[in-house]
Amino acid sequence: MRIALLGGTGDIGQGLALRWAYDTNHEVVIGSRDPEKAREKANEYETELSSLGVDRSINGFANEMAADRADVVVLAVPPYHARDTVETVADRLDDVDVLVTPAVGMDRDEDGFHYEPPSAGSVTELVAGAVPEDVPVVGAFHNLSADRLADLELELEQDTLLVADDGDAKETVRMLAEGIEGLRALDAGGLANAAEVESVTPLLINIALNNEGMHDVGVTFE
Hints:
Layout: E1 2-6, H1 11-23, E2 27-32, H2 35-51, E3 59-62, H3 63-67, E4 72-75, H4 79-89, E5 98-101, E6 106-109, E7 112-115, H5 123-130, E8 137-139, H6 146-150, E9 158-164, H7 167-178, E10 183-187, H8 194-198, H9 200-210
Parallel strand pairs: 1-2, 1-4, 2-3, 4-5, 5-8, 9-10
Antiparallel strand pairs: 6-7, 8-9
Helix pairs in contact: 4-5
């Protein structure tokens, strides 16, 4: 399966790219608005994997080229770039693709981080409203520590919550998520539940900021 990480040069994109390249045989492609930056980062990821004894080829392209012919496209971009990025690659998507969004709208003040959803209700629903009608959207990976993902010597032992209205698309992302060692995917319902899932992220960041030794805090459900 070909996974395109648009904005794959950032924190969450890096973590997911490294984990999928390290733990699975899926083809990983890095996308960016700047194709040279995408290629540089792809080379960095290859070097890091090589240092751990894993020989993988990772390519970098402009976002449009990365999304082209991908089976799963991950919008690893900040929430304020989500709609623009979707519109940029919309003509490269069709009904056999799955679009995944891990973005969360947040604001910060002197007390910490706070959930700040867009008018659509959640970033996931915002993305769903921007894609071509036949392209399924799955919200996933919102609550994961990007730093923990990117450190391949650390065990994850965390859960990620999935929201989607398309059952087949959700199952595809569940399979991809659980291909990452130590990551469990749990069904949190349809897209209407995305706000509840996304709002956990600022809570986790506030816990990490206020408690020593919890920099990479995540969630598990029992």
